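Suppose you are handed a protein chain with no further information: no name, no annotation, nothing but its sequence. What can you learn? This example shows the usual starting point.
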Amino acid sequence: MTDADTHAHARHPLRIAVVIPCYNEALAVAQVVEGFRAALPEAEVHVFDNNSSDDTAAVARAAGAVVTHVAARGKGNVVRRMFADVEADVYVMADGDATYDATAARRLIDRLVEGNLDMVVGNRVDDGQNALTYRAGHRFGNRLLTGAVVQLFGGGLTDMLSGYRVFSRRYTKSFPALSRGFEIETELTVHALELRMPYAEESTAYSTRPEGSESKLSTYRDGWRILKTICKLFVSERPLQFFSIIGGLLVALSVVLAVPLFMTYMHTGLVPRLPTAVLVTGAMLAAMLSFVCGIVMHAVTLGRREAKRLRYLAIPGVRAAVRK
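A reasonable first move is to predict its three-dimensional structure. Written in structure tokens, the prediction is:
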């Protein structure tokens, strides 16, 4: 950070909010709240209790957090409320399971401000104390899903599913938050990539949960949901590519079936397999319709993207908040 930025920061400190989604984290949430209050004493710590059946809300409130009850189950629903209800210049989002390093928050915020970025993702690095902290299956699934997003939408993220992130105000207030569950991290990532927001990754320690607490993540069920979300986002954000692939496959099918018919017609002047000829014609027409759908939806998507971009541009960046 430059000297000018440092002095401006001293005169006009950023409003920092730590937002923590929680569901049945009574054993860990106090440690998380206290950790962030120590690391960011100027920040306001919010815990959004997702209709827990234990004492998460009471424990968080006793630890000094502002607690908000969210009745609709699912992390995506909680993130929607967090971004809508909390007013700040910088938002630090972390899970309430005490697996993320609160002391890294200042470094992530500095990276956001120095680069005038909109998102900094805490790339998880296993602390090596427990083999079950970041299981091999979860690592493989993360690499697979992150790789799919990189191939489809671009970017260079290596840990798309990390729940430890820092956002600018213009990110949070332009994010539509359509997901309901753990697939929210995928939507957060694609939103930044589609609007071409400046972002970065910072390595952060990833630790074992406190003894007795249980993960709410289901490897296969939530992995399948995330994969479906990636596919849905590909259709909605890249419709021309998607329908071009469908159209191309239909054209290939039509050509493969049509070649024998054409050869027979050239030799005999007859078309003996009429059902196949009808199928060829239908496949080619469907291919043409697919291409047309792709073009129309591409125009709609561009309009939606422009509207989101204009909303994004209407909100000052994080450096403007420092200097105002």
